[in-house]
């Protein structure tokens, strides 16, 4: 019997995973989040299913029987991939769930701000019926959208916003087969300067940390709208707060922050009157969660089979 531990329990009770894995697996739902807790809970585990628990060098070193880890999600930023390789542990994510959900969320943020939904509702709540203080919306054809990171989600956002009539611009140094219908830029600042809405869809890595800095925000400008459904670490939040305070950036729609729940500068950003903040829910739907749990279990079983060969 192979022992599998589910670290975090945010996503459910382990029933989908147990049903998928069947009798050959002993699945324990640990509900742990710190290094020490993971090490204590995962002794003798061959496989781990992890959402946010930190998979660090220390954790891998303390679990010599571990063969495979699958993250419940797309981003692998809480897993030290070099450490996993050093300890001969296979790692995977669930790269094909929630693409439509996140794309819908980003496109909805763009459409909502384009029609000034948040600003207008705030105006009514704070100053009563009237239109002063609400910038007149532009027709979508004059309201370009910039997509940073043209992967699965970025491309799905492009399909949605172009169907709504927004011109699409992209920046992704690694993307091939970029369609002729979109305008490609060589730099993130160049993309920001060309658009009104900038939506982020690159991974959180050492290279992308703080990529949306003061220069990119200045290029996006006072009418600009930053949309982040990727990871908080992509944005220099000090610079974002300064730009919002100075009025040199128009608005931000943020599903993710550097600190979740918000603390410090992330809390100041989240409370800003020209920010629409959501509690990291872009992935969420009645379909995506069971898919995530089932696909994570299938992937872990495949990795463990490979490791046993
Ligand atoms: N908020 C949520 O609930 C939620 C849900 C799912 C995914 N996400 C985030 O969205 C991100 C994108 O997901 P995806 O499925 O589109 O990933 P993907 O791998 O399909 O696409 C990422 C794109 O980023 C590009 N890229 C890689 N490194 C880059 C760099 N240094 N600079 C610029 N571009 C770079 C790649 O070429 C690729 O085209 C994930 O990394 C994840 O963190 C968030
Ligand atoms: O746990 C989550 O918040 C979701 O699975 C999103 O994670 P992801 O952005 O890495 O997919």
Question: What are the defining features of this structure?
Answer:
309 residues; Rossmann fold; 2 domains; five-stranded parallel β-sheet; 15% strand; elongated; binds nicotinamide-adenine-dinucleotide; binds 3-phosphoglyceric acid; phosphoglycerate dehydrogenase activity; D-isomer_DH_NAD-bd; oxidoreductase; D-isomer_2-hydroxyacid_DH; NAD(P)-bd_dom_sf
Describe the structure.
- With 309 residues, the chain is of the alpha/beta class.
- It folds into 2 domains: 2-97 and 287-308, NAD(P)-binding Rossmann-like Domain (Rossmann fold, 3-Layer(aba) Sandwich), CATH 3.40.50.720; 99-277, NAD(P)-binding Rossmann-like Domain (Rossmann fold), CATH 3.40.50.
- It has helices at residues 15-21, 35-41, 57-62, 81-86, 99-114, 117-127, 152-163, 188-194, 214-220, 237-246, 265-270, 288-308; strands at residues 2-6, 25-29, 47-50, 68-71, 90-92, 145-148, 168-171, 183-184, 197-200, 225-228, 251-254, 275-277.
- A 7-stranded parallel sheet has the order 8-7-6-9-10-11-12, sandwiched between helices. It has a 5-stranded parallel sheet with strand order 2-1-3-4-5.
- 3-phosphoglyceric acid binds at residues 51, 72-75, 280, 283.
């Amino acid at each position: 019997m192979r022992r599998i531990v589910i670290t975090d329990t945010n996503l459910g009770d382990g029933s989908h995973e147990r049903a998928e894995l069947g009798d050959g697996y002993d699945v324990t739902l640990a509900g742990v989040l710190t290094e020490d807790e993971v090490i204590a809970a995962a002794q003798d585990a061959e496989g781990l299913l992890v959402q946010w628990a930190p998979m660090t060098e220390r954790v891998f070193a303390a679990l010599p029987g571990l063969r495979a880890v699958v993250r419940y999600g797309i981003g692998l930023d809480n897993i030290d991939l070099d450490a996993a390789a050093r300890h001969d542990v296979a790692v995977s994510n669930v790269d094909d769930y929630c693409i439509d959900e996140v794309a819908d969320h980003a496109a909805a943020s763009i459409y909502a701000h384009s029609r000034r939904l948040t600003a207008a509702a705030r105006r009514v709540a704070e100053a009563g019926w009237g239109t002063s203080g609400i910038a007149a919306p532009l027709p979508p054809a004059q309201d370009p959208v910039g997509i940073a990171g043209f992967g699965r989600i970025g491309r799905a956002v492009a399909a949605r916003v172009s169907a709504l009539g927004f011109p699409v611009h992209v920046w992704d140094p690694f993307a091939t087969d970029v369609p002729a219908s979109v305008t490609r830029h060589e730099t993130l600042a160049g993309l920001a300067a060309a658009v009104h809405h900038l939506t982020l869809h690159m991974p959180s890595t050492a290279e992308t940390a703080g990529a949306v800095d003061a220069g990119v925000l200045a290029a996006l400008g006072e009418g600009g709208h930053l949309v982040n459904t990727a990871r908080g670490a992509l944005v220099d939040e000090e610079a974002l707060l300064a730009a919002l305070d100075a009025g040199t950036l128009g608005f931000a729609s943020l599903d993710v922050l550097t600190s979740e729940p918000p603390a410090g500068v992330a809390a100041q950003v989240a409370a800003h009157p020209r920010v629409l903040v959501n509690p990291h829910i872009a992935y969420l739907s009645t379909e995506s969660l069971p898919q995530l749990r089932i696909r994570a279990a299938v992937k872990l079983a495949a990795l463990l089979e490979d490791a046993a060969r």
